[in-house]
Write a structure and sequence with these properties.
398 residues, alpha/beta, 13 helices, 38% helix, globular, binds S-adenosylmethionine
């Protein structure tokens, strides 16, 4: 899009980014009203490699964040104004500069009084406000999120933000719980422990009573690494054990976490949480193979599920929907929501269950819904149902 007014805008943007006086740029007013992308919010970010423009792509149901050099950003903004948005609002301490593009491609510009106050600082200072601080954070350094100077490594910025997002999401659920002294948290399939360490850290800092936390993981090298890091961080209540979610020997669990444990391992974890009477169960399911094997739909719906990808997604929805219903039938109030942006992982659904009491009528209703759903989708049995009926033997063998 070549236009004198646009050139004025881009010159201004380039100058404001260069002298770090840009407060914010917002691209809005969609060209296509049906598009999922609602707006883009652009701010300055200072990292070791220099100035970057941080783009937050605001979609209908999620945000995606990306950083670009000023030159790259200008190319992207130019094409966004040509293809996606009619408006650009540029906020600086000197003015609010507005670009309005008409349907016919005419570009109008307007300069108004400044509307936003300048930010005192940006870049890493902004990260400092995060719920998991990085200053002197030993476990984040040992996990490679920070460099030896305790700065967030550029390539780990997304991971650091993801860790913080996870704690921000969980903290309201945890705050509501009436936890006993020395309460026990089990993280099933803890992997490299990024989220395990962060949750332990958060719990220690936000609770008078220090928690006991166990990460359960089949891979011995990860168990060893995480125990070493827990030692270096002096996290006395945190340990990792080599074991299988299904049968690891654990004390009573008050909070059960299972993030991205494979297929039915998520069900094993939910089962362990329910049977332990956990006050809170949090899981982010991974792959969903079990229900799909049975999946058979009839009638008009089969004209949708004949497409493999749509059948796969439907099977995921049925699997997780039945998981939530089984938790409800066991007295858990459930919430299902998106956990992190799908830029990080497509497996971004979180199921949270808080233990309450359930009336016999409500239990009957949940069980009836499960029966109807299974019939509708040709599912013989959900793996978690089988566990609830037959149980699983806890032996402690990995
Ligand atoms: C995708 S990683 C997720 C790690 C971590 N929860 C996270 O979200 O960052 C899944 C981890 O679970 C472990 N895992 C899978 N099935 C398991 C099981 N049945 N018992 C214990 N660990 C398991 C895997 O070895 C792997 O490290």
């Amino acid at each position: 899009m070549g236009n004198q007014n646009l050139n004025v805008f881009f010159e201004k943007l380039n100058r404001l980014a260069g002298d770090k006086s840009l407060i914010k740029l917002v691209l809005s007013n969609q060209r296509d009203r049906t598009s999922d992308l609602k707006s883009i919010i652009i701010t300055l970010l200072e990292i070791k490699k220099g100035t970057r423009l941080n783009f937050v792509y605001r979609y209908k149901t999620r945000d995606i964040t990306k950083n670009f050099s000023v030159d790259e950003a200008i190319v992207l903004i130019r094409s966004s104004l040509a293809d996606d948005f009619f408006n650009a609002d540029l906020f600086s301490s000197a003015e609010t500069f507005r670009v309005l593009i008409t349907d016919q491609g005419k570009v109008k510009i307007r300069s108004n009084q400044p509307q936003l106050k300048p930010v005192d600082s940006f870049g890493h200072d902004r990260l400092k406000e995060r719920v998991i601080p990085f200053e002197n954070n030993i476990y984040l350094r040992e996990l490679g999120v920070l460099n030896s100077n305790f700065e967030v490594r550029h390539e780990m910025n997304d991971k650091y933000l993801q860790i913080n997002r996870y704690i921000e999401l969980l903290s309201p659920f945890i705050r509501d719980l009436n936890l006993p002294a020395g309460f026990h948290v089990a993280d099933m399939g803890s992997g490299k422990g990024y989220l395990t360490f962060a949750l332990y850290d958060y719990l220690v800092k936000s609770n008078a009573a220090e928690p006991v936390m166990t990460g359960v993981e089949t891979r011995p090298e990860l168990v060893k690494l995480c125990n070493e890091i827990a030692g270096k961080a002096a996290f006395k209540g945190l340990k990792f054990i080599k074991g299988n979610i299904r049968d690891a020997i654990l004390d009573k669990v008050d909070i059960l976490i299972a993030l991205h444990a494979c297929d039915t391992a998520t069900d094993d974890a939910i089962y362990r949480g329910i049977t332990s009477g956990a006050s809170l169960i949090v899981c982010a399911p991974c792959c969903h193979k079990q229900v799909r094997k049975d999946f058979k739909v009839a009638g008009a719906f089969s004209s949708i599920t004949k497409h493999g990808i749509l059948e796969e997604r439907q099977a995921e929805i049925v699997t997780d929907g039945i998981r939530a219903l089984i938790m409800e039938s066991q007295g858990y109030k459930t919430q299902v929501f998106e956990f992190i942006s799908s830029e990080h992982t497509a497996k971004n659904l979180m199921i949270v269950g808080r233990k309450t009491t359930i009336t016999p009528a409500a239990k009957k209703k949940s069980l009836e819904s499960i029966r109807v759903l299974k019939e509708m989708f040709g599912v013989r049995e959900h793996y978690l149902e089988g566990l609830m009926r037959d149980g699983c033997r806890v032996t402690g063998d990995a």
